[in-house]
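Database export, one record per block. Field names are fixed; values are copied verbatim from the stored entry.
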Amino acid sequence: MKAWRRATKLLPSEWLARTPQRSCRDRLLTHQVFQRCQSTAPYPSTLELGGKIFQTDSWTNVPNSILSLVPRRLHLQPSHPIALTRGLIESCFPSSTYARYNDLSPIVTVSQNFDSLGFPEDHPGRNRSDTYYINAGTVLRTHTSAHEADIFRQNASPGFTISADVYRRDAIDRSHYPAFHQMEGARMWDRKQVSGGNVARAVWGDLEQMPKHTLQVDDPNPTVHPERNPLQADHHSVEEVEAIAAHLKRSLEAVVVALFSAARRSNTLKSAPEDPIRVRWVEAYFPFTSPSWELEVFWQGDWLELLGCGITKHQILMKAGVRNQVGWAFGVGLDRLAMLLFSIPDIRLFWSHDERFLSQFSTIDNINPFRSFSKHPACYKDVAFWLRSSSSSAGGGLRSNAQDFHENDFMEVVREVGGDLVEDVKMVDEFQHPVSGRKSLCYRINYRSLEGTLRNEEANALHESVRKELVNKLGVELR
């Protein structure tokens, strides 16, 4: 370990000189490790993003590793699994009714991201431990719903879909990444524009024009329930909600048909093609809709949660200046669906520049299950530390004590140093000293490259940099 502490002071050429027999790919990996072992710089006074200059302040917590992902826009890259999945869902919503918003800026105001949707001031999603702040008034959007109120306000079409990259501080494992992709859609009816102001009749008429399917649907619960799934009684009638819910469910069941039929054609799903696709509707709670549901699909012997949806909260429409409208909305995670459709085992692969990954995919008419091109060994390292006994700071990247330590702060330090060379992180021990009351935590970090062989010495160098940054940024005492 001491030798690799010294090695972090070497130049890249000196690192590479130590590994003359390694492949070009592995030598590039060594260079990447060297770069990641350098200390992270403090935030500059300004950040340039999307052609605009933003002043930083005490709220700023977005690292360069995250900012570097913003221009990638995977959901718009031809032949990328995320874009192919988006296109397949989008095809279920005709452009004559649904406007498509796929190129909205990820830089939004706090008001757009939280206030417009009715997030309370003390909602944990507003914390710096959860959200990437550019400054006190500006964030990287944490959901596509940040654009909802603006699009409702424009009132340019009866419906719309939004697809976008979104950003949240999160755990580190094969299914979580701080940048991911969402898609949402909405369909509205205006009481002043439908015949006789009868929304229910207009919705049932639209439903009759929609194609039918052969799904096996389990939907045992009533559309509304006073406790479990309440009606917005001040704004909607039961008849309106019954009709809108039926339209919503038929629309999203069509998405299931499109997704899973495509998967079956590629043999991604192991179910026999003649077996009917089974779905079920489950009562749920979401802050933006009521009543609300989750749609689940029976897949490979188990029920898979696919998406969430419901009748749009009328307060959102009123704030957007379209109080005469009623309708539905849904939201779905594109990364999770693409992992299912293309049998992709690790979410980090989506961000790979490796042609061995990117060249495997072409069009949505020809879904090819991912073929693994390498299996590199894992390298596990533990880090244990004491939290400080007292502090006046809050969570979100500040020096932490046992009361305000947030695991996302720890994850962010590991991710900033290790980047995509870290596969997952798990807490393996927690201890509180019986006399002093101080709290100790131990985490196990799995270092593994998707593209080359990460040597134990290189993992040691990364791990030593993680340890240093934990002290510098969180003020912990290493054990």
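Remark 1: Residues 102 and 182 are 11 Å apart (CA to CA).
Remark 2: The chain has 14 helices and 17 strands.
End of record.
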